[in-house]
Amino acid sequence: MTTHPINRATTLKTAYQVCNPLQSLEGADLDRYYVDLSDVRKTEAIAGVSNILDCQEPEQFTTILFTGHRGSGKSTELKRIQKEWEKDYRVIYLEVNEETDINDVGYTDFYLIAIKRVEFEMRRLGLKLDSRLMDNFEAWFKDVTEETERTVESSISIEGEATLGPEAPFLAKLLVKLLAQIKGSDKQKKTIRQTLEKDISRLKADINLLLNDAVKKLRKKFPNYKGFLIIFDNLDRVPPKVANHLFFDYAAQLQELNCTMIYTVPLGALYSSQNAVKNFDCPHIVPMVNIYEFNRDSCDLNYNEHSLKAMASLIERRVEVDTIFESREQLLEVAKASGGHVRQLIQIMRTASITARGRGHDKIMAEDVTYAIKQEQFNFERIIPQNHYPLLAQVCLTKNINKDEISELMLFNLSVLEYNGKNRWNYPNPVVKQNEEFQKALRDARESNVNPERS
């Protein structure tokens, strides 16, 4: 494996640049900045996925659910899985929000995305799908969608779509057009999905015939490949109601394509009253880094020094700490305020860097860290409904949440975090705990527990 120089940031400007919370690690940055947190996450999620891929025989397929909070580091881990297994699988990594409407995803979208991307990979490899199967599928598609070569050609920009080229078949162009319509128009989206669902058995059967043909031809040219592996990332961004509908009502359909697929599922789906993921194999969970010493009887937890240092190492990997911070204490304060949430850690660090620079400081001072944490707190205050605070106080006291829509929303908006391993428990986001409304709700909850007749 090629090792790239780390090139740690030595100025506030470069510290700001290398701490981008919206950018997952990939390519050279994956080698430079990746830190293995499996020990402090207390989870075997990544190893579990790799074990399944290893045990799977050629031309077999399975559906894997990969979950955790948004920003917990799932995308980085999926990039690691992609890199580790690209010698055994033809890996197709994609961000679902780039392919369809993330706020209203339908299961047929995945059917279209899967065959679109596999067909493109085949062309990239100099392979062709069976012409008879393609002709049959195209003829059916033309019939049900009432599309022709002319209507498709006139409505897509070949220059603007990476999966198209001069040799792209009609099917590829039609799939590009349909997915663009699904992503861009509510009316067209509904019409397309209803049209496809009328004959879903035919759609599924034709796609599976093409997928089977693709795998056989792939393995004939590249015997080391077991088949295709499609990673659907960013599905954890779908709203709770959409996630429940998708993974509960259409669980069977999501598992019926003849291809190994990894879906990133919103963590809240595990807490759904419908038990939205019960019809899948056990999901692989990437929880928070457990920076606390677990104590179910206390709302104010002590910190686990080993885990705090592990969180701090994510920043140490990117910046020269002694050059960037006034003292190491500021770095540990950032780690504490993260709650073990990777993206929140990076966001606070970035805000502290730009704040210090704007104030003319040579290094990040204690006041810069305090300001950055406060900004994160204010972001949560803007989105947390008033009626959530009593429930957040109960989470702090009990270390658990209910199985209802409000709890799913609290997990979705990250006001509540999950920790895993020997124990599974929940805890309020530390920046939310600083909120005055939360503190008032906590005092009221404690008083109610002392004087139950007043509750």
Q: Sketch the topology as an H/E string, one letter per element.
A: HHHHEHEHHHHHHHEHHEEHHHHHHHEEHH
Number of strands: 7
The whole-number mean of residue pLDDT values reads 88
Please report the number of helical segments: 23
Ends apart, CA distance between termini: 61 Å
Could you estimate the helical fraction of the residues in percent? 40-55%
Beta content: 5-15%
Low-confidence stretches: none
Report the principal-axis shape.
globular
* Rg computed from alpha carbons, rounded to a whole number of angstroms: 24 Å
Structure classification: alpha/beta
Largest β-sheet summary = 5 strands, parallel
> What strand line-up does the widest sheet have?
2-3-4-1-5
What does this protein structure show overall?
- The model has no long low-confidence stretch (mean pLDDT 88).
- The strands form two sheets. A five-stranded parallel sheet has the order 2-3-4-1-5, with helices on both faces.
- β6 and β7 (425-428) form a beta hairpin.
- The protein is α/β, with parallel strands linked by helices and 455 residues long.
- The protein is built from 23 helices and seven strands.
- α4 runs parallel beside α5 (74-85) and α15 crosses α17 (328-338).
Give the secondary structure arrangement, pairings included:
Layout (H helix, E strand, L loop, with lengths): L11 H7 L9 H6 L4 H4 L3 H11 L7 E6 L5 H12 L3 E7 H4 L7 H18 L6 H15 L3 H5 L16 H15 L1 H12 L2 H22 L5 E7 L6 H10 L1 H4 L5 E7 L17 E3 L18 H12 L4 H4 L3 H11 L3 H17 L7 H18 L5 H10 L6 H8 L3 E4 L5 E4 L1 H4 L2 H15 L5
Parallel strand pairs: 1-4, 1-5, 2-3, 3-4
Antiparallel strand pairs: 6-7
